[in-house]
Amino acid sequence: MQGKFGRYTSIYKDLSRVNHSCSPNTYRKFHMATFSMQLRAARDIEEGEEIFTTFTTDILQPAAERAKDLVPYGIECTCRACLDPTKSDPIRAAVRVGSKHDLYTSYAEIDAGVRTLARIEQEELHASVAYRQTLHELFSAYLYLHDEKTALMYGEKLWLARLAAGEALYDVFRNAEAMKKSPQWITGKLASRMGSPAHVMFKFASS
């Protein structure tokens, strides 16, 4: 754990026994108020399914780089992604690139975001920052388009993902009235009235 005055290492009676995976189904989150490490589900975990965490710095990096991160722990990962990196590495590279948009401004970009989300779910990368980024981008895009139903769908997923990651939660993710007061919704409304290029692209792509 990286802190204000350097790097810290800790050992926990139970959490230190959780096995590693490059597609973990949990987040580790240090809770300063109780000075404890929390383990939170990053996605639905089936009954009887093993709980995994990750000891790599970035689960989106190639298998060879992840392997270097695991050397100090004496771990040789045998998860699906590491057993077949020729299949997994390109998917993770595509996720890394595809999750770096600031705001989707056309249906083509939204479609690309949906494909990125599908790759994340395929590789079970729900514990990655890319998952929350992609959800946020799709949520914002559909707010801009005034597609309340779809925005609420992505907003609910985003709310749950941020809850699991221990990040701030906002009413706008789950409340339709709050959505309609958001900058994205208001900007989309103004753009529609003014016929801005971004809004024209949306209209053209959907025709």
Strand and helix layout:
Elements: E1 2-3, E2 6-7, E3 19-20, E4 26-31, E5 36-41, E6 52-53, H1 63-70, H2 80-83, H3 85-98, H4 107-122, H5 129-144, H6 148-165, H7 176-179, H8 183-194, H9 197-206
Parallel strand pairs: 3-6
Antiparallel strand pairs: 1-2, 4-5
Helix pairs in contact: 3-4, 4-5, 5-6, 5-8
Protein name: SET domain-containing protein
Domain SET: 16-54
Organism: Armillaria gallica
Helix and strand run: EEEEEEHHHHHHHHH
Whole-number average pLDDT?
Answer: 87
Determine the oligomeric state from the structure.
single chain
Low-confidence stretches: 199-207
Summarize the main sheet: 2 strands, antiparallel
Q: Identify the strand order in the major beta sheet.
A: 1-2
The strand count comes to: 6
Our count of helices gives 9
Helix content: 40-55%
Supply the helix-strand structural class.
mainly alpha
Task: State which percent range the strand residues make up.
Answer: 5-15%
Number of domains: 1
Overall outline? globular
Over all CA atoms, what is the radius of gyration? Answer: 19 Å
Alpha carbon gap, first and last residue: 51 Å
Domain SET: 16-54
Pfam families: SET
Protein name: SET domain-containing protein
GO cellular component, one term: nucleus
